[in-house]
Amino acid sequence: MRVRKTAAVRKAEITQAALDLAFQMGPDRVTTAMIAERLGLTQPAIYKHFPNKDDVWRTVTEALCQRIDDNIGAAQDQPEPLARLRALVIGQIRLLQDYPALPEIMVMRDPGSGTTELRSEVLNSVGGLREAIHAAICAAQTSGQIRSDLDVDDCTALIISIVQGLALRLLRFRRPEDLISIGERLLSVQLLLLMEKAKVSGDSA
Amino acid sequence: MRVRKTAAVRKAEITQAALDLAFQMGPDRVTTAMIAERLGLTQPAIYKHFPNKDDVWRTVTEALCQRIDDNIGAAQDQPEPLARLRALVIGQIRLLQDYPALPEIMVMRDPGSGTTELRSEVLNSVGGLREAIHAAICAAQTSGQIRSDLDVDDCTALIISIVQGLALRLLRFRRPEDLISIGERLLSVQLLLLMEKAKVSGDSA
DNA sequence: GAACCTAGTTATAAAGCTATAACTAAATCT
DNA sequence: AGATTTAGTTATAGCTTTATAACTAGGTTC
Q1: d(C-alpha B89, C-alpha B194), whole Å
Q2: Does residue A170 belong to the interface with chain B, where contact is any CB pair within 8 Å?
Q3: Rounded to a whole number, what is the largest CA-CA distance in chain B?
Q4: Does B103 score more than 80 pLDDT?
Q5: Domain presence at residue B205
Q6: In a domain, A32, yes or no
Q7: Rounded Cα gap, residues B191 and B159, in angstroms
Q8: Would the pTM count as exceeding 0.90?
Q9: Does residue A201 lie within any of the structural domains?
Q10: How far: B53 CA to D8 C1' (Å)?
């Protein structure tokens, strides 16, 4: 019984440890004992802060969804459609870098109990991101910054694919280091392709 | 003791059941009991065909890697770089549709024993796909079908992102149905973007 | 400083999963 | 037909993991 911290602090430590371990081991393999050990506690101590293990993941997931939503909200400050688009995409990639367990948790099956809450919450937040990107592209198209001969849904899918590609890369290699630089580069190339001809304008196939 | 099948048949059935269950439940949650039940067997029966559970996954993984390699090999029949590229991408997407557990298994952590074989084998096959796509793009560029002002690596990453996006989509929604139609559409749009200006040629920024 | 609350402990029950041992009977071989 | 092989069975050992119960002591309040 070394140190005794307040419930709020410990709860935060536990979710953080769960998040770290989720990346290291995969969410499914994280045990309450691992979390406890990492914090210098005994396994049952976890249950002083969470009624059950599922609730740990619920908390982790909610925190991550909040970050995604925050990112979407923050991007709305950008008045320029393309700047907004960039903020959305790069912001999300930054989240991947900061919380590399995000893809695994996003993809995680709902634990034990029959609830599908977790998955649907994540899907909801990510769906919001998609909508925001879609809207930004739409705006960029009407303001003539993006080729208007392209389908908005296609453009959206191509842009989002960049983020998804990086997420999958993270799932495979588990190296979050240079995600941003790669992401920025790919985004700029893709945007170049989507914008091209806005300048030329007048050569239709 | 109803029916008694030959070892070869049962082994195949077991790997198939494991593959199906991996998609339904997630590889980590598949138990030997589930596999057995699905085949109308008792749990220990599995061990008449595999020395241990890890070996089931090893077999599944090897089969999937073989398919990936086959796809890469088959695409080499296409002499035209762009047709080859298309065959590589669509072929891989078809694999996702036929074996929707592929992304999960690709991303799966190595089970129990210390071996990292599984992951590295998959990474190897997927790496081969990347190389083949890279080469096809390179060829398409030298033959003037793809804009030569773009970096080959960037193009490769953008094309692969399409596949990765679909893989992640599968991980999230678990609906393999219309992967191909989406994939074909996105690929054609992306290729259009990459080819554009090959016709115009002569307006450099 | 006594009383109270609660973060943390030890001990353990209950459940699920992998794997083995010992046995049984279907198929094959001679 | 009898002997052999082996796919499959029942039973169970052993481990891991979640969760609870009962106790202990740190920190705050009065």
Answers
A1: 15
A2: no
A3: 76
A4: yes
A5: no
A6: yes
A7: 8
A8: yes
A9: no
A10: 18
